[in-house]
Structures are given as structure tokens and as C-alpha cells.
Amino acid sequence: MTGTDPVRPRAPRADALRNRARILEVARAVVEEQGAQASLRDIARRAEVGMGTLYRHFATREELLEALLRRRFDHLAGHAAALEADRPPAEALAEWLRAFTSGTAAYRGLATSMMATIDDESSPLHASCGAMRAAGARLLRRAQDAGAVRPDVDGLDLFALVGAVSWIADQTPTIAARRDHLFALIMDGLAHPAPTG
Amino acid sequence: MTGTDPVRPRAPRADALRNRARILEVARAVVEEQGAQASLRDIARRAEVGMGTLYRHFATREELLEALLRRRFDHLAGHAAALEADRPPAEALAEWLRAFTSGTAAYRGLATSMMATIDDESSPLHASCGAMRAAGARLLRRAQDAGAVRPDVDGLDLFALVGAVSWIADQTPTIAARRDHLFALIMDGLAHPAPTG
DNA sequence: ACCTGAACACCGTTCAAGT
DNA sequence: ACCTGAACACCGTTCAAGT
Known about the structure:
Two copies of one chain form a homodimer.
Chain A: H1 14-34, H2 40-46, H3 51-57, H4 61-86, H5 89-104, H6 111-119, H7 126-145, H8 155-169, H9 173-176, H10 179-191
Helix pairs in contact in A: 1-2, 4-5, 4-7, 5-7, 5-8, 7-8, 8-10
The structure holds a DNA duplex.
């Protein structure tokens, strides 16, 4: 027995940790500037690492984007939990959706990656995206119990509608200017009971 | 005077016409299979033309995609006009939106190009996309006059919402399965008057 | 362990050379 | 006029060679 568990891999080297952090930081900035189809070579250059280093830390482009998204999912899940504790049902839901959509604007082009995680159980994001959606679904349920949202809507419906509006609002300035209006049209609509017949 | 107007360019050669048609036909099939990011080399290969020929007819990738979309825009504009003449307001609008969304599924990834034409006046699609939206807007107006849709929605709002749902439904199978439900949620919502308060 | 950068197989786009 | 395919400057990804 040496004090180090032989099963657990030893701690990464200091330079590896530093490089990983640099790459993530640069990737976040570059994606915010150029969108999700930004050049990985460009990211490696600006992070001042070789291409091989980038690939050692993130085995594929998707893995790098996923690392960017995970933070956001975890943040939104936590935010939902806090709102559930602190705010009345309808207000909590509205505030959370606002946070969801406003954040999405900074992740240009990542909406596609986000949607892909829903069905891809092998994705390392599958779990954290699911946790975020579950947290949102709880806010939705509370709002439905309070009669603020029609009952035939579930968490995935809500996620899809809000994701769809976030995406379209990122497409072109004329529509971006209507983001809030489009959002309101949807939420107003969901507040009414389903039509009978 | 020779009988040919010197200003008007002469008719294209027969091989040029044939190649253009082949490229378009192949591009349509390939985009349907692989989406809008399909390889142009692949399209040229399958159309059995050189890369230069593809570029002679479509000076950029965007131009080729636009040629595919234009047909669709023109078709939808005509369809709207026919429905306006033949059907009661609410039914005409619903049927047109159904045609719009169901067709979009075959144009995987082209939604982004479609949205881009709204603000880009230099795009050759700007006009035909605008004409299609105008035709849809007339159906919307009729439905609003009949009291079937809340009045604070315009043609661009409707286009954005329907485009957004079409896009999201193309992203992943789980959501694709809910396409009709999501669509119904939005249209139900638009049927109610704006909330006062 | 980890890093580097050249190498590979692609891509979109251009252009000299052919008919 | 129109077509061809090689050439160019990129890209994502891999891998032998270094420390």
C-alpha cells in the first residue's frame, strides 16, 4: 500500500491542467465570436497549444462543444432549483425560461448540439442535459398545478418550443428584434386551456 | 438587324442546359439524403460533371441551395393564392401552414439559408421569399378578420414561429414525433385574444 | 505523461488548358 | 461557350518524434 489507490489514475500534470483550461477559455470566446463551426486550428493557435494537445483533451470537436454546454446545463439546473424554492410558480417558470433563452444567444450554433444530446444516450451531455430539463419540468408542473399553464404540455414540449424560438431569434436581426414578442406569443398561448373540440 | 436582339444574351448551349438540370436534380436528392452541408464535390461527381461546371452554373454553394429553395417558395406562394380563393379563412391558413411545415422536412438544413434571405436584400432569394411570405400574410390577415387569430401577430411573426417549429422538429427523432402537437400548441395559443393585463 | 507539428485525406473555390 | 481536372489554401484528425 502506497497511499495512492492504484485504480484511480494519478492527478494530471500541472501543464495539462493549465492547457485544458486555456483551451476551454479560448474556445468559449471564439464560439461566442464566430459560432459553433469555428476552426479548431484557430482555437489551438489562440490557446498557444499544438493541435495534438487540443485533441488529447477533447477527442472530437463535439466533445469540446459539449464541455462548453455542460457548464451551462449545470448552471440552469441549479437556477431552477433555487427558483423553485424562492418564487411563486408562474413567476419562477417565467424567470427560468428567460434565463434559458437569454443565455442561448451567447452560444451561437450550439443549439443543434444541445438537441442532439436528447436522443444520444452515449453523449456525455445526455445526463446533464436531462437533469436540466428535469429541473425545468418541475417548474412547469408547479405552474400547471397553479393553473398557469395548460395541462397537456410536458417538459420536453416546453424545452422544444423555447429552444425553437431561441434558435430562430439567433438567425437574423429582424427576427432577433422580436425575440420577446415571439416568446410572449407562445407563453400566452400555453396559459389558455386546450380548446375543446 | 439580324433578328436577334444584341442586348439579350443568346440562348445557352444545349449541353449547358442539360448540365444545369442534372446538377439541380442531383443536388436536390443529395441534400434530401445528407442535409445542406453535403459535399459539392460529391454532387459534381454524381452529376458526372467537373467541379468547374458546377461553379459555372452556381457561383457559390449558397447559390445552389438558393436554386433549390426558390422552387419551393414559388410553389408555396401559388398554393397560398389558390387557398385564398377556394377556402374559408381559418381552414385556408391551417392548410397552408401544414404544407409549409411538411415540405420543410425534405429540405434538411436549408432553414438557415431561408432565414438569411429575410435581411439580405442582395440575395436572389430575397424577392421570392418575400413574395411567399406576403402570400402567407394575406391568409393570416383573412383569418384575423374572421376572428380566428389574435390581431397582434403579423406575417413575419407567423413565419418565424412556424419556421422555428419546423427546424426543431428536424433536429432529433423524439421531437420529430411531436411535430403536430407542438404545432397545435402554437396555433391554439394564437387563436386566443391577447391577455389584458 | 504530455506536447508538438508535420502528414493525411478531405473540403470549397479558382483557373489554365482544352474542345 | 462551355467543360475539365489539377492546383490552392484551407479544414478535422492522426501520429511519429520529442521532452
